[in-house]
Each structure stands twice: as C-alpha cells, then as structure tokens.
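Run log, item B.
One chain of 142 residues. Sequence copied directly from the ordering sheet:
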Amino acid sequence: MASRFWPAQPGRIFVGRLATGTDLVVEIQAFCEAESIQAAWVSLVGAVTRATFGYYEQAEHRYIEMTSEFHHEISGFIGNISMKEGKPFLHAHATFAEHEGGTLGGHLLPGCTVFVAEVNIREMTGVDLTRTPDELTGLALW
C-alpha cells in the first residue's frame, strides 16, 4: 500500500487530570466518547502503579502482552484517538521508567492503573480516521 495523508484542522483542546486508581486507557476513551471526539492527538505525563503494554509480533500478527506491577513514572507517551467499531479508540505508545533508571514500554493496553496523569487532548476535525482491518499487517489501521 502507498503512503497516504489527509488534511485535518485543529478542533477543541482539553487538559485534565485522571483520577488516581482509574484505568488510563478506559478513562481517556470514555472522555472522548462523552465529548464526541472522533480524532485527536493525546499526550500525557504522570505515573502508574501498574503498567500494561504490548509488543507486536509482526511475523505472527499478534501482541505479546506484558504487565509490570511496580510503580513507574511515565517518561514518554504519544498517542491518538480514532474510531474503531464505532467508538473512540486510543492508540498510544508509552515508556515507563523504573526506580533504578531503567525503562520498559510499548503499545499501551487497558490495565494501566493511574497514580497521577495530566492529559492533553487536541481534537482534529475535518478528517475521518476510522480503523479497519489491514491484511498485510494484521492490524486495524486508518
């Protein structure tokens, strides 16, 4: 498949804080659904008491899911919102720092428990970003 790009315009901007003990992915998706956000860029700083993430095994077209029960700082986070199966879907990658300075991370999955999270959601308008199955990669892509 050839590379593709679509024009988009900036929409609303939201900043907020997620409640301690909530699921990071679930909370962001629920907020976007409540605000009818269908496309957005998402950034975040904070910490988790439990990290859940995945590594996509390209040859097998499946995620290897990993969980860390330690407290981690979120040292990197970038993501987007698009539509999947009629609902806002958060696609994000995160890096988690350990207390001794090591890092781990990958594709963010539900199951990350928030200690503190300050979120920035920048809506995009005028663009339809809907995820559909892609046979070549095995992923749901725009």
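Observations after the first pass:
- The longest strand covers residues 40-57.
- The beta strands are 9-18, 40-57, 62-68, 72-84, 87-97, 103-108, 113-125, 132-133, 140-141.
Flagged for discussion on Thursday.
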